[in-house]
Amino acid sequence: MTGPTTTELVAAVPGLAPYLRPATLLHPYAATPDPRASRIGGPALWPAGAPWPRCTAEHLADEYRDVSAADRAIWEAIARAERERARSNGGVHVVTPDEAAEQRRIMDGADSIDLIAWHTHRKVAERPAADTALVPLAHVRAEDAPHLPWPEDADRLQVLWCPNDHRELPNTRYYYGPNVELHWQRAADLAPVTPPAPRRSEDGYLPTPCALRPEQILDLPDQDELPEELHEAAEEFAQRYGLEYHRALSCAEGWKLGGWPSWHSTDLVPVDCGCGARMVHLLTVDSGLAPDVSVGRFGELRVFVCPTDLAHPVGLDLQ
User: Fold this and answer.
1) 3-state class of 267 per DSSP?
2) pTM of the model
């Protein structure tokens, strides 16, 4: 028996109808994309004579600090004491409060410590010596996603990002990833260009060019965005087929335009614009697959837009 469709669910639970949102699943696949088609990566187009966009935000760079000989000796002594206690404690490894305090002092806020090279590692914000050229992430034709909030006369959306990690971007919380820009344009204004290469980039932020098989669907929200009674009714319906609502019938997975974002790694974290408006989901970037990008911990990057003004900075969230 095949699973139920979203349409069948809404027919059984009519209260879900107002929550339906149109979405386009992009289904990227490895192929040289047509310059005139929607695509991931691939050939770049830009208005003739206009400068290629560059990132002016601070980037996160690796910083390594050597561990002094004295602190190395302290760390090794703590490790020996920990192993000795484990032998008489059923293999349970613990450190004392004083030992933990010494380790924190040696780490000094670092993210990790290399016990072979004996240095600590952290990410620090730095202003690049020169602005970094953005990288084409996605090119979308209006006919492939007509439900997006297209400005008047725009028929192309170009999604560019800076292939470096950032913190504290506008409309983000606890974010650690690429800086994203949206450019709503007209195909008639665009011409082939060769963008400058970024001065540096993180692994996983340079997409492999891919063609797309756009599929338009209707999407339902995560359970956290539904009233409790509607979620219970949807879950009851899904269980008749041996399914779970939030895994099988909501928040379609993969590269997606429009629709609803999933909150599978955290509880609902509303993304609000600096103007106070609740932002709406525009794009989900998925890790792996043909584009071979990796965001977060091999997760999803979701891009949100302000419903009152598309010129406001995008909202970004990782799951």
Assistant:
1) coil
2) 0.84
For CA atoms 296, 172, 159, 38, the dihedral sign is: positive
Which residues 6+ apart lie within 8 Å of 33 measured at CB?
39, 40, 41, 42, 43, 209, 210, 211, 212
CA torsion sign, 59 to 266 to 215 to 220? negative
C-alpha span between 250 and 244 (Å, rounded): 9
> Per-residue pLDDT tens for 41-71?
999 999 999 999 999 888 887 889 999 999 9
Nearest one of 282, 257, 272 to 38, comparing CA atoms: 257
Domain chopping of the chain, boundaries = 6-58+139-318, 62-126
**Those residues with Cβ within 8 angstroms of residue 49's Cβ, 6 or more apart along the chain or in another chain:** none
Q: How far is CA 119 from CA 102, 106, 202, 305, in A?
A: 16, 10, 21, 41
For 224-258, the pLDDT digits (tens) are: 999 999 999 999 999 999 999 998 999 999 999 99
H helix runs in 88-165, sequence order? 97-107
Q: How many CB atoms lie within 10 A of CB 206?
A: 16
Residue 132 pairs with which residues in a beta bridge? 55
User: Taking the CA of residue 183 as centre, how many other CA atoms within 13 Å lie in the half-sphere pointing to its CB?
Assistant: 23
C-beta of residue 135 within 8 angstroms of C-beta of residue 198: yes
CATH homologous superfamily for the domain 6-58+139-318: YwqG-like (2.30.320.10)
Distance between CA 80 and CA 93 in Å, rounded? 11
C-alpha distances in angstroms, 37 versus 22, 99, 158, 267? 21, 60, 12, 36
Neighbours of 146 (CB within 10 A): 12
